[in-house]
Each structure stands twice: as C-alpha cells, then as structure tokens.
C-alpha cells in the first residue's frame, strides 16, 4: 500500500497533494509525533518506518528553530537542516486549517533535489521584528524569486485558504480574489511599505511589507496583515477618539463658517529627517499665534505647509484664505485685500465686496509669493499687521480682524530687502518664525514615498492599477534633480500614467527631459536635438558614419563649451593640439 493511502487510511486529509517524490514524507499528529512515514526515510536518515512511528519528530531529526515553527503551525518550505553532516532541506505544512487539530506533513530531501533559492530561518528571525508572533499574526515570507517560503494560517485565513496550498507558489499570482502582492515591488525598491491598504480576498485589508536583507544583500521580503478589514481601523479610531483632545468645532457664525480644512500634516508626505523635523515644527508652531514665513523653491510644498499649520491650529474650523500676491494686478490688490463698499469706485460691485483679510477673520490668511507685493501695499499690509484692523475702500469704518498670517516666498527676501524692493520692517514682522522647506534633491529618500503616494492617487483618479516603477525608472527618478520639486515629480508621474501600458511604469514612460538628464540617451554631453539626430541615424548610416558624426559633434560641443579656444578644447577632449587641428580639418570645422 502506498504511503499516501496509508496516511489517508490513518485519517489524515492530504487533499490532492502529489506525494510521489523521492523525499522522506512524514505525517505528524497533533503532538508532532510521527503517525506514518514512507520507506525513503531509510535512505535519508538510516531508520525504518517501524522504528520511528510514534516518536516525536524532534527526537528523530534535529529541527533546531524549525521545531517552534512546526509547533506553531507555520508552513515553510526549503529550510535547511543537517543530518550526519549532510545538508538537507525540509518543508512542513499543517494538513488542515487548524494546525493544532489536524497534524501536518513534513517532507525531507537532500539539498541537491531543491532548485529554489533558499531563505534560511535565521534571516527571518534576525530581520523580522522580534515582536512578531508567528502563531497569531498573519505573516508571509517570500524568497528573491517571489516563491512563498513561509506562511502561517492566520495569513492564509485572510485569503480564505489553507496555508499549505500557498507554499511554494509564486506570490505574484497566489492570492485569490485579491490585488497582486506587492512583495516583489518591495524587493525591487528595497523600501518597506507600512500600513497600506490592499485588496485581499475581496476585502480591503491593511498590510505592511518589508524587504529582508542579509549582510546588505536582498534575500527576500515578508509581509503581515495588520487589519484584515480596514473598517476595523475606523472602529479602533472611534474607540480612542475620546483620548484625543480636538478643538471644538465652532457653531456656524461670523467667526466659524464651518469650513473644513483641505489638507493637514498627514498630507505632507516625507520620511526624510528634514521632513520629519519640518512636520514636527509645523505642529508646534501651529499652536502659537505668531506670523510665519515659509521659504523654499517653487513646488516644494509651501502652500501645503500653510494648510497644515492652519489645520493643526485652533483656527482649523475657521477659513483658510489664500492670496497669490503675484497673480493679482497691482491696482486690484488693495480692493482684493481690503474689500470695498458699494460705490467706492467706478466699476465697484453693487453691495461692495468683502476683502480677503475680512474673509480670513478667525482663521488664517496665506500670502503666497509675498515678495511680489508692491511697496505701497507692503506699507498697508504692515499697518494691518500692527493694528489688526482694516478699512474697506470707500468706507471710514474700521473693522477689527483676528487672523494669523502665513506668508511664503521662493526668492531670497533678505536680498529683496537689501535692494530696496521689500520693506525691512515688514520683513521682520513676517519673519517671526521662518521655516525653510528643502528642495526635493536634498531629501531624495522622499522621492520614493511621494511617488508611491502619487501612484495611489492617480490609480484612483484614472481608475488604473499601476503597481509601481521598474528598477530603471526608479533609478532615473532617484538621480534626477527635480528643479520644479514635488510639482514636477507629480507632473512626471501623471505624464507616465498617460504613457504606461503594463502594470509597471518603465523608464521610457517617464518624460524625455528626465531621461535626458540621466544621460539615458547615451550622450550626456550633447544637447537633446543633437542626441536625437544621432539616434535617428541608426539604420540609416553605418556605424563608422555615425561615429564620425558623433566625433564631429563632440568636438563642436567642446569648442562651444570653452568659447572657441582650441587649446582648451584639446585639453577638455584629452587630445593634443595638432590632433585637434587634424580633426577640425577632417570635419571641416573652423
Ligand atoms: N511633501 C509633499 N507631499 C505630497 N505632496 C506634496 C508635498 N509637497 C508638495 N506637494 C504637492 O506638490 C504640489 C506643489 O506644492 P505647493 O503648491 O504647496 O508648492 P509651493 O512651494 O507652494 O509652490 P509655489 O512656490 O510654486 O507656489 C502640490 O500639488 C502639492 O500638493
């Protein structure tokens, strides 16, 4: 009688497992005692089945760490164990969904029989956080090829299947009724993804994924389900709501018009130290009434920070009013800011207009591009900041205003003060708290997280399921300087969404200027038109002709770069002056 039949006769549910291998197969009962075993054990461990039936598996082979895995019902594959100095690999999977009630199937084979990369248990134990509870938390682990090497039943329960069925499958296609696993992406990027939503078995779960490294080398990845249903998160949030002291939402009225804030500190994505520090400062200063000056290049997120300050302050339910000082023509700025009464000037609206300062009463006014405010208006703004009251155009009645001022600039205001185009007194009034937002190129770590955030956003907006970027595309983004900062990154990803054909954004999907900047079009020293001209000649000209053309263009570009000085051009090119002359003659260059 075959082993499988024996095991089934003994009451073990082996499902449709294929047991016709050369391996030693052991069915264990609930106490990890050997219930039945095939003949191959003699070849592998030198014992006959009848000698070991009824004994604990741990008494027959030295299981080491794996013992606790088996006890906890964790399924694993390809784990090395040593028998008489010979390396073997073993697999284990409980036979049913309840590992403690059903026993399991243990398989042992010689190392040469295994053809998948091995991920050893110590990797797992060293790299996974020590607090992970293998028996209760929902865990999965894959090797570098994405093969499921270890999985426990709580994880498989989320997917509604038996853990043993998942073992050895490629995780890319192993999840039924779910979005594809992102563990391969985590291995591509080397970046952990924590507390992210993921569709598993038809429900949105909250999961974390981590790459596994050993001695700096990627050896796999692991993931865990934090909540099998996102609704659990809101239930928990409700439970703890009472412990979080939020400012009371004011009743509708003049001070609080019940307006909700659009962004808050959580909208600012960034895990770099610079951004963590910045967010901490934003939250701290939000509690104080002082004016704030936000400085940073265009697109670094100054407006987002202004929103975050407002949202974290006690003014959060009052209005946030944005004024772009550069966008409003000088002659309209005063009426925009101060408002006017009916008949104040020709063309004034019937009933007048409430100015931005008054609109911001009780809340925050964000003065963007403050450096562009004309000097006359600067004087008027200074008065408002000092007196905290405004007089609409055409009126004699002053109105007191309670607002917080957050101003932003992407030029150096000190220089403006020096050249006389910005008032010193206003500068010091605004500069009570100054925050500098670093450009993206100085916090490259954030590129990954912001990109991921953008991908999620565009997936939702465009109803697409882009998974991420391939390694080459990541490389381009990581190395690009982003002069337009996050705004430019956003545009780049949006543009890629319009180009992408598969589930991953490739380098070719990214905007041309990003590819060019990385020199990915082969010739970094030539400008775009020259590069394209050369590339277009592939197939039209011979290699020698293209090389000659390239040499001619490189010489010309070098001469342009050194202002036509031939000695310098020869030096730049690393050739002798006579050598350069010869080539100038050959290519008929002056
Ligand atoms: N840390 C960030 N996380 C997520 N999105 C960001 C971040 N910083 C900026 N953004 C996004 O980038 C875009 C530009 O940001 P924002 O308008 O706040 O920049 P800015 O510094 O005020 O630019 P400008 O000086 O040109 O007005 C917006 O779409 C914003 O939502």
From TrEMBL:
Annotated signal peptide: none
Gene3D superfamilies: 1.10.8.60, Homeodomain-like (1.10.10.60), P-loop containing nucleotide triphosphate hydrolases (3.40.50.300), PAS domain (3.30.450.20)
Domain PAS: 139-170
InterPro entries, per the entry: AAA+_ATPase (IPR003593), AAA_lid_NorR (IPR058031), Homeodomain-like_sf (IPR009057), HTH_Fis (IPR002197), P-loop_NTPase (IPR027417), PAS (IPR000014), PAS-like_dom_sf (IPR035965), Sigma_54_int (IPR002078)
Residues spanning the membrane: none
CDD domains assigned to the protein according to its UniProt record, in alphabetical order: AAA, PAS
Keywords, comma-separated and alphabetical: ATP-binding, DNA-binding, Nucleotide-binding, Transcription, Transcription regulation
A Pfam family reported for this protein in Swiss-Prot or TrEMBL: HTH_8
Domain Sigma-54 factor interaction stretches: 268-498
Keyword Transcription: yes
GO biological process per UniProt: regulation of DNA-templated transcription
Gene Ontology MF annotations: ATP binding; sequence-specific DNA binding
PANTHER family reported in the protein's UniProt record: TRANSCRIPTIONAL REGULATORY PROTEIN
Name of this protein: Sigma-54-dependent Fis family transcriptional regulator
């Amino acid at each position: 009688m075959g082993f499988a039949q024996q095991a089934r006769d003994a009451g073990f549910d082996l499902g449709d497992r294929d047991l016709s291998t050369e391996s030693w197969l052991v069915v264990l009962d609930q106490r990890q005692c050997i219930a039945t075993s095939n003949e191959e054990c003699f070849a592998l461990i030198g014992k006959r089945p009848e000698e070991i039936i009824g004994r604990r598996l741990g008494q027959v082979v030295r299981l080491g760490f794996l013992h606790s895995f088996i006890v906890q019902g964790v399924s694993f594959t390809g784990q090395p164990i040593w028998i008489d100095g010979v390396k073997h690999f073993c697999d284990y999977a409980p036979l049913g969904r309840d590992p403690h009630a059903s026993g399991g199937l243990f398989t042992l084979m010689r190392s040469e029989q295994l053809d998948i990369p091995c991920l050893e248990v110590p990797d797992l134990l060293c790299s996974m956080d020590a607090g992970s509870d293998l028996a209760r938390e929902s865990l999965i682990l894959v090797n570098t090829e994405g093969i499921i090497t270890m999985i426990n039943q709580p994880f498989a329960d989320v997917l509604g299947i038996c853990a043993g069925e998942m073992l050895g499958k490629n995780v890319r296609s192993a999840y039924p009724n779910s979005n594809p696993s992102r563990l391969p992406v985590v291995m591509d990027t080397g970046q952990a993804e924590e507390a992210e939503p993921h569709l598993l078995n038809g429900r949105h779960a909250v999961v974390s994924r981590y790459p596994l490294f050993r001695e700096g080398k990627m050896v796999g990845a692991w993931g865990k389900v934090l909540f099998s249903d996102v609704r659990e998160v809101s239930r928990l949030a409700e439970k703890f709501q009472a412990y979080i002291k939020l400012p009371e939402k004011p009743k509708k009225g003049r001070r609080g018009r019940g307006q909700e804030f659009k962004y808050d500190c959580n909208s600012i994505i960034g895990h770099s130290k610079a951004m963590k520090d910045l967010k901490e400062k934003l939250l701290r200063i939000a509690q104080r009434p002082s004016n704030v000056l936000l400085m940073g290049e265009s697109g670094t997120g100054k407006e987002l920070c202004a929103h975050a300050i407002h949202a974290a302050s006690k003014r959060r339910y009052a209005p946030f009013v944005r004024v772009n000082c550069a966008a409003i023509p000088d002659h309209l700025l005063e009426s925009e800011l101060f408002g006017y009464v009916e008949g104040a000037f020709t063309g004034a609206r019937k009933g007048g207009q409430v100015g931005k300062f008054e609109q911001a009463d009780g809340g925050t006014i964000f003065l963007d591009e403050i450096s562009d405010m004309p000097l006359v208006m600067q004087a008027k703004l200074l008065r408002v900041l000092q007196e905290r009251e405004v007089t609409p155009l055409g009126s004699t009645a002053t109105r007191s205003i309670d607002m917080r001022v957050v101003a932003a600039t992407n030029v150096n205001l000190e220089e403006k003060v020096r050249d006389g185009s910005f008032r010193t007194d206003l500068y010091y009034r605004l500069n009570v708290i100054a925050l500098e937002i670093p450009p993206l190129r100085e916090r490259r770590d954030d590129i990954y997280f912001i990109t991921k955030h953008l991908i999620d956003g565009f997936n939702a907006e465009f109803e697409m399921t882009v998974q991420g970027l391939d390694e080459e595309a990541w490389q381009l983004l990581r190395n690009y300087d982003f002069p337009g900062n996050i705004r430019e990154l956003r545009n780049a990803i949006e543009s890629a969404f319009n180009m992408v054909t598969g589930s991953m954004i490739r380098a070719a999907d990214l905007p041309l200027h990003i590819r060019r900047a990385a020199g990915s079009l082969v010739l970094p020293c030539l400008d775009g038109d020259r590069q394209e001209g050369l590339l277009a000649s592939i197939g039209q000209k011979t290699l020698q002709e293209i090389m000659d053309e390239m040499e001619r263009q490189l010489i010309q570009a070098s001469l342009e770069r050194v202002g036509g000085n031939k000695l310098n051009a020869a030096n730049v090119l690393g050739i002798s002056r006579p050598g350069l002359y010869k080539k100038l003659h050959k290519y008929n260059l002056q």
